[in-house]
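Journal club side-thread
Mid-discussion, someone asked how the predicted structure for our own chain would compare to the paper's figures. Pasting it here so we can look after the session.
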Amino acid sequence: MKAFLVFPFVFMLAMSCSSGQSNSTSSAANIAATRIELIDFYGTHRCETCMAIEANSKYTVDTYFQDALKSGKLLFKTVNVDEEKNYALAEKFEAAGTSLFINVIKDGQEQHIDLTNFAFEKGRDQEAFSAELKQKIEEQLKAL
């Protein structure tokens, strides 16, 4: 009978002592409070330029910002505006189709920087697109 009562107690004690998970959650919460999100909104049906915008954004982030990605200071998101689960986010940014935004989150405040015109102008020129997007992201990271 004692073993029957001891087992649940030991199990509950072991579960309550796992501190590794709570530490990573705390760190993630701190990182999440101040960050930059590069958000590529798109519709289900995309033109070549729209696909190039996503590809060149991903290329730029993966090539130049690995440390910022790993630390959580920079996030790259692709969001299909045609999916119901994304309606609220698309509405928040007033994105009805392909749009590119930098969302700067600092001290709980958001600043939306619309890069859509730039993205369509340079979207099919990877070198020009990447150089300018890199500069824009670096400016915002320095300001954090």
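Post-session note: The radius of gyration is 21 Å.
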